[in-house]
Amino acid sequence: MNRILEIALDVFWLAIIIGGGGWLFWRTLRNSEEPTKNTFKLVFTVILVVGEVFFVRSMIGDLTIGGGMGNAPEAVVMTGSIVICAIILSILWTPQISGMMFSPLTNLFDGGNEPPEHKPFYSIANTKRKRGLYQEAIGEVRRQLEKFPNDFEGVMLLASILAENLNDLRGADNTLNRFCEWPKAPDLQVAAAWTTMADWHMKHGLDVDAARASLQKIVGRFPETELALLAEQRLAHLVNTEKMLMDQHDRPKIVLKEGVHNLGLRDDAAFRQPAEIEPGKLAAAHVKHLETHPHDSEVREKLALIYARDFKRLDMASMELLQLINEPRHSPKQIAGWLNMLANFEVEMGADIETVRGTLEAIVTRFPDLPIADLTRRRLARLANEFKGKEKTPGVQLGVYEQNIGLKYGSPRKL
């Protein structure tokens, strides 16, 4: 029974040694920069250790048989062989052992043996593009896209070369549409792709209809979202953008008005001021624009300013701002800004303090974590002083003083 137990223990320890050695062998080869060299070192180490074990066992047998001081030379030879074997092994494996011991520390600085991130590189394509080698640049981009299909950076780079350098808007449109039709394409990247395509249609093709079609794709793909709202606002300004681009392209003639006669005899400087559009006409133009593009927040804000500053109509200005405030697709920062603007109008046009307080408290209630909420709390704390500053100071009746006092002579002087 004892013999069986000894054999079992020997097998157990042998399995541990073989397993540990195998793991060390695999780890060394995996992290090694020279796997062939390390394989040779491992094979040499196994042969050396096995040979040394057999040699030591034979020497121990000789020492046991002989006994006495006569076996001293054999003991010296056995000890020397062990020392030589240890020196050889230390020379072979010191770099690996020290690397294993200190690698946790050095990995903090050099990243260790982690392989570099597997990602596409477009530096060659960008270099060729800068040199004017557009077809070669396209070839480089497509080689990277074969390895990394639907990589957004590569898709946009390819479309950019086609649209901006080769004026191939159809090819760029097809490239972006293939990416956008990919089921896993992120929403933000899809919206960015179609928005960029709309810009290219306007800038390089002066094609409003194609630009409008690209933006309408965003509205149709992401209805009732902030992305759709941004696209709708871009759609509202397409006509103005077209006019600006056409003016840059056609360079219309500038007709100069007749100059002012008798310039040196003019007392006033009103002729120097540019003619301003009447607020009524400007408000009517904004209203007509909003009938077609009701989500144009920029124009609606301008209309509210006209109602408040030019017509002193707080009710109409509030109506326009509330439409912006109650649109859930606007960002919290925009809504907080419009609430603050409404509070300013209320203060300027004589609303009571409780009305203004309610408007400002809406900012704190709706957006307690925004920085503007802290600013609003501080404004609420000094709101009473703000209203007190708006009160008219009663005029002070001054005495009647003699006129032209500086022109009089002969007034008596006191010594």
Sum this structure up briefly.
This protein is mainly α and 415 residues long. It has 18 helices and no strands. It is elongated.
Question: Could you describe the 3D structure shown?
Answer:
The protein has helices at residues 2-31, 35-66, 72-110, 123-130, 134-147, 152-165, 169-180, 187-205, 208-221, 226-236, 238-250, 279-292, 297-310, 314-325, 332-348, 353-366, 371-381, 383-390. 16% of the residues are buried. It is elongated and about 120 Å long. It is built from 18 helices and no strands. The chain is 71% helix and 0% strand. The protein has three domains: 32-105; 123-250, Alpha Horseshoe (Serine Threonine Protein Phosphatase 5, Tetratricopeptide repeat); 277-388, Tetratricopeptide repeat domain (Serine Threonine Protein Phosphatase 5, Tetratricopeptide repeat, Alpha Horseshoe). It has 415 residues and is mostly helical. The longest helix has 39 residues, at 72-110. Residues 398-415 have low confidence and may be disordered.
